[in-house]
Design brief:
four-stranded antiparallel sheet; elongated; alpha+beta; 132 residues; single chain; disordered C terminus
Length: 132
């Protein structure tokens, strides 16, 4: 069995959240929303949307936490120009806690799916309202 991997991605999120529009062309944004909705429905995926109203958080780059069966956890962070693997438990723990706080402020997977569907409807011209 492979290790369990938790991911937090931020690319494009700030522009989309602040303007309720995509930084990408219309067809690209539609395809990305459709892909997120498809992924969110997979049995091995727990997709959480962090509402813009949740305020700032401490994860400023991509973060992947890898939990191994032997109890070890490693963190991989990636910025615009480089990535960094963290194996020291004392350095991994604050990253794990930041991830937990972010997940706790996010919508539940079912609520996130509803939000993404409403956002897609809003983007494609359907009259659905989108709240978060």
């Amino acid at each position: 069995m492979l290790p369990r991997i938790l991911r937090c991605r931020r690319k494009g999120a700030r522009a989309a959240a602040s303007r309720r529009t995509s930084p990408y062309p219309g067809a690209t944004w539609t395809a990305q929303l459709e892909r997120l909705i498809e992924a969110a429905q997979q049995p091995d995926v727990a997709l959480h949307v962090v509402p813009f109203g949740a305020g700032p958080h401490h994860i400023r780059s991509s973060l992947e936490l890898v939990y191994f069966r032997d109890g070890r956890t490693v963190a991989y962070t990636q910025g615009s120009w480089s990535g960094h693997l963290t194996e020291d438990p004392e350095e991994v723990e604050p990253l794990r806690l930041a991830y937990d706080v972010l997940r706790d402020t996010s919508l539940a997977p079912a609520e996130s799916l509803v939000f993404l569907r409403a956002l897609l409807d809003e983007h494609t011209g359907s009259p659905e309202d989108v709240q978060p």
